[in-house]
Specification:
Keywords: Magnesium, Metal-binding, Nucleotidyltransferase, Transferase. The protein has 291 residues and is of the alpha/beta class. Strands 5-4-1-6-11-8-12 form a seven-stranded mixed sheet. It has a two-stranded antiparallel ribbon with strand order 2-3. A two-stranded antiparallel ribbon has the order 7-13. The longest helix has 18 residues.
């Protein structure tokens, strides 16, 4: 099977977070002790993916390059792609078509945070499906604000509706998508919605209609946070802080994941720990060397 590649969609205007994002990309905002983009990056890494395209606005790309570099510090390879205008989530597959070059992909939205004990297992399982797609449903209190999955009497997904006034269920589609190499071709064929965007739900419906879309539901043991508002940004930071202080373990650390994956060695991990100096983050990385 062709090696899966990653896409992190970190574009968009971030207007819901104004004035915070008038000068800084939303995905560079802090979530407790790390920039927001570290969290979706960690999801791609937990899925075992090392080649990643990072899609940004033209004006923000230099800041992402400064933060993330070429990915070699984590044993990875990054390619940067400009999003000239935010025209819908499915647009990412058009922008990344050359990068993907026919490979299957995992795309994560740059403002989504996932946490759960069995998350790596769930990600690896989705990665093993060579054909079709896999998305994840999460039970939310107000599904009308999301793309929502509908299920038949046997519990099988039979529809995905974008922001429905009457949701068929409480399961929202999270910002994490495993799709096969056919995604760019399919994205070219969907039509813009009434709001002028290439909706990800329209793309997913092409797989669903053919019976090749798997919908995995995340249970109570999982957390999915969308950090698109001021309140949710603060909630996410508090969530990560609480977990980190209570457990004494970092959430969403690329260095730790790269080291556990065998992508970097002790020398490289020590270099990263020294880079962060006497911060709690640096001290944590130092402890990984003697655990």
């Amino acid at each position: 099977m062709t090696q899966r590649k990653g896409i992190i969609l970190a574009g968009g205007s971030g207007t819901r977070l104004y004035p915070l994002t008038m000068a800084v990309s939303k995905q560079l905002m802090p979530i407790y002790d790390k920039p927001m983009i570290f969290y979706p990056l960690s999801i791609v890494m937990l899925a075992g993916v090392r080649e990643v395209a990072i899609i940004t606005t033209p004006e923000d790309q230099a800041q992402f390059r400064r933060l993330l570099g070429d990915g070699s510090q984590w044993g990875m390879s990054f390619e940067y792609i400009e999003q000239p205008s935010p025209d819908g989530l499915a647009q990412a597959y058009l922008l990344a078509e050359d990068f993907l070059d026919g490979a299957p992909s995992v795309m994560v939205l740059g403002d989504n945070i996932f946490f759960g004990h069995d998350l790596p297992k769930m990600l690896r399982s989705a990665d093993e499906r060579a054909d079709g797609g896999t998305v994840f449903g999460y039970h939310v209190a107000e599904p009308q604000h999301y793309g929502v999955v509908g299920f038949d009497a046997n519990g099988q997904a039979n529809q995905i509706i974008e922001k429905p006034s009457e949701p068929p269920s409480n399961f929202a589609v999270t910002g994490l998508y495993f799709l096969d190499g056919d995604a760019p071709r399919r994205a070219k064929e969907i039509k813009p919605s009434a709001r002028g965007e290439l909706e990800i739900t329209s793309l997913l419906e092409t797989y669903l209609g053919e019976g090749t879309l798997s919908v995995e539901t995340m249970g109570r043991g999982f957390a999915w946070l969308d950090t698109g508002t001021h309140g949710s940004l603060l909630d996410a930071g508090n969530f990560v802080r609480t977990l980190s202080l209570r457990q004494g373990m970092l959430v969403g650390s690329p260095e730790e994941i790269a080291f556990d994956n065998g992508w970097i060695d002790e020398v490289q991990l020590r270099e990263r720990a020294e880079l962060f100096g006497k911060t709690d983050y640096g001290a944590y990385l130092q402890r990984l060397l003697v655990r």
